[in-house]
Structure formats: structure tokens, C-alpha cells
Amino acid sequence: MIRGLYTAAAGMVTQQRRHDTATQNIANLNTTGYKQVDSVSHAFPDVMISAMSRGTTQAVGRINTGVFAEQSISQYLQGDLIESGKPVDFALSTDLQVQDPVTGDNIIFDGSGKSVTAQGEVIYRPQAFFTVQDNEGNNLYTRNGSFTIDATGQVLSAGGFKVLDANGNPLLLTDPQDNLKVDGQGNLLDPATGLPSGTRLGISVVNKPQELVRDGNGVFHADDLQAADIRYTNANDNMQVHQGYLENSNVDPTLVTVDLNAAYRAYEANQKVIQFYDSSLQKAVTEVGRV
């Protein structure tokens, strides 16, 4: 009976975290560049139950001891592009491909950007991000292209981070803000000639986006750069920069609302199980004990 209490309590904790994740998604429904988070739950390892009687042991079977919210996974699906008309607003649209190492064909990804090869290997679609830098010199990655330019010509992200160029240096402009022009590949254009000036936006391709860690403020970082396999974009990447646009959140409000209600109902069901066990224990103590 006590084991059932622990199992139901674990279920309540898991559903609370699932509920919190759905609430976070709803709160960021209109946050620029926000990527939906999905909570993944797993069962605790099964344990073998045996019955012991007069020195002999007989196997009864396996029993599960509950579930736990193991991790939260970001979904890097493309969000809708919204026109803002501001010259310092940028959005990315990408369709980066990965070739199967055996067949050489382009891998087909599902709606979540994941694919499982014939060998059972899980592969995620590479994603492109604007590269920014914090005050400690750490590179961060974001899809929020709502930039600003300070009095010194320094280009800053929405979180106040320094926007980098393709050489990994902070992007510093000398021209007025109205003259800022960028082509589809992220090349800054000379305001006088309209030709590439030799400076490009620092857009990074993360070949293994599942290695990224969410920091808040719409940015991610990689604990292991080699594991995340990060590089700057090249001419072969199917990537487009849209000036005067912002990428909206990719949260699916219908799906998140259903998940929110399902988590609430499951939490309520586990709560009733605990109430049942509590009532049974109370009877065992107050009534059975008198007999």
C-alpha cells in the first residue's frame, strides 16, 4: 500500500512539471523566436517481486514504481515570419539537409525535425541561429532577430548581447541605422554601391541542436561545442535571411492547450489515488487496530 502512495506521488510530480512546461509555452505564445518545449516522461526501472515463505522464495512478477519527467526537449520547427518593416529586424528561414551515410540520399525528417535511420541512429535536422556573445565572451545562439544599434554603432540583440559577424567579432556599424542593408545570405551591403561590403552576419549552423541548452531570454548555449558540431554558414546551405521580418513563436496553441488539460486531469487522478490510500490507512489504524 505504501508503495502505491509513492507511485501516485511520483505521478503527481511528473504531471506538475508537464503542466509547468505547457504553461511556459502558452506564456511565450507571442515571444519572437521562441521554440516550443515538450516534456518527456519515462518510467522508473521495473523491480522483481518475490514471495518468501519458510525459507523458500517464489517469483511473483515485475512491478513498476512510477514515472518521472526526465527532460524537456525543444522543438526547432520554423515559426511564421511576421513583417515588421524595421531595418534592424531579421528572421531566418532554413531547410538544411543531411545525407544518409549509407545511401547518400537526403534524410527525411518528421514534423519534429527528427529521423531514425535503418541502423537505429536518431538524427536531428540541423538548425541555423544568429550568433551573439555575452559579457564573458561566451557564444550564444538565438532565433530572435530583433536587434538594436547603440550610440557607438554596436549591434545588440533583444537580450542586450553583442551580435557577431561571420568572423566571430562583434558587429560594429559606422553607417546610420537607416542605411543598414543585408542581402538574403546575410551579407551587409555598402549603402553607396549596394554591393556586399565584405561583412556578414554571424549565422551559425548547429548540426546537432539536441545538444543545445536553453538559457532564457531566447538564447541557447552549448556545453560541448564539438558534440553540438557548430559552424558558420556557407554558400551551400539552404538558408535565407529576411530583413524587416521577425520569426514568431512556433508554439501550437491547440496542442499545448490539450497537453495542459491532460496534465491537469492526470494530476487530479493521481491525487484521488493518494486520497484513497490515505483513507485506507486511516481505517487500518483506527478500525482494524481495535479488532
Q: What is the secondary structure topology, with strand pairs?
A:
Blueprint: H1 2-27, E1 37-43, E2 47-53, E3 56-63, E4 67-74, E5 81-83, E6 89-94, E7 114-116, E8 122-124, E9 127-133, E10 139-142, E11 145-146, E12 148-149, E13 155-156, E14 162-163, E15 187-189, E16 196-200, E17 203-206, E18 212-216, E19 219-222, H2 225-228, E20 230-232, E21 239-243, E22 245-247, H3 253-288
Antiparallel strand pairs: 1-4, 2-3, 5-22, 6-11, 6-21, 7-8, 9-10, 9-14, 9-17, 10-19, 12-13, 15-16, 17-20, 18-19
Helix pairs in contact: 1-3
Short description:
Residues 243-285 form the Flagellar basal-body/hook protein C-terminal domain. The protein has 291 residues and is of the alpha+beta class.
Structure description:
With 291 residues, the chain is of the alpha+beta class. It folds into 2 domains: 2-74 and 251-288, no CATH class; 81-247, no CATH class. Helices cover 23% and strands 33% of the residues. It is built from 3 helices and 22 strands. The strands form 8 sheets. Strands 9, 10, 14, 17, 18, 19 and 20 form a 7-stranded antiparallel beta sheet that branches. Strands 11-6-21 form a 3-stranded antiparallel beta sheet, with no helix packed on it. Helix 1 packs antiparallel against helix 3. The two termini are 20 Å apart. The mean pLDDT is 85.
